[in-house]
Amino acid sequence: LSDPTMWGALWRQLLAVRRVAGRRQRVRLHALRAVSDGFVGALYKFWRRSTIVVTYAHGEDVMIVRSSRIMYWMAVVTYRMSDLVIANCNNTRDVVIDLCSTARVSVIHPGVDASLFKRTPEDVQLFRQSLATTAGTFIVATVARMEARKNQAGVIRAVAQLRAEGRPVIYICAGDGPEKARLQALARELGVADAVRFPGVVSDDVKSLIFAACDVHVMASVDADGTFEGFGMVFIEAAAAGVPSIAGATGGQREAVLD
Known about the structure:
By secondary structure, the chain is α/β, with parallel strands linked by helices. The protein is built from eleven helices and nine strands.
């Protein structure tokens, strides 16, 4: 509360909202998250009570506010003042209500433009050939930030076990993050460095091609460091490409994937 930099930033955002709203008597503000977008909306509503505030909740953004008393307080004020909180899944809704029991929450599962994930058989064949796969090779893919919660390490261990059983499996592990070096070391340690591909951060076009070309998409996220998978848009993207997913049984993943 004593940080003038934070309050200065909030004040500038509040003035920007007021400038855009102008003389309108009825304003609807949409906030991407409770802290700090939604808090600015709540402050504006204190000043102009006719304002409608809609705040979105994604999962991890709700959990992280518990790490700070000031963020916790800001989130509770925001949810209490919001006319509607839109959560991406029932799990996120429950977390919001646990934080603020008076919050008015509705659930809308997010979707994607399925047309962006349709690839021709020729595109798929060429991509699989570029991986130097032989006939019958089973391709597993993950496209996600490389952090402990995403659990790519568990997939690498599963690939190593399957290959030890003589099954032709390769793993496309796309993305970047703090766990990347450890994941690469794990692949070498388990003797599957040649079977685990690390293409790094990929474009949307390449991502859609990876999904279309793999046999199964895996992101078996786990709870780690007090965070969980809020929903998992990659599951919806893989489904749009016509590919089944394996997901972890925590957070919103259970709603993103039909068991």
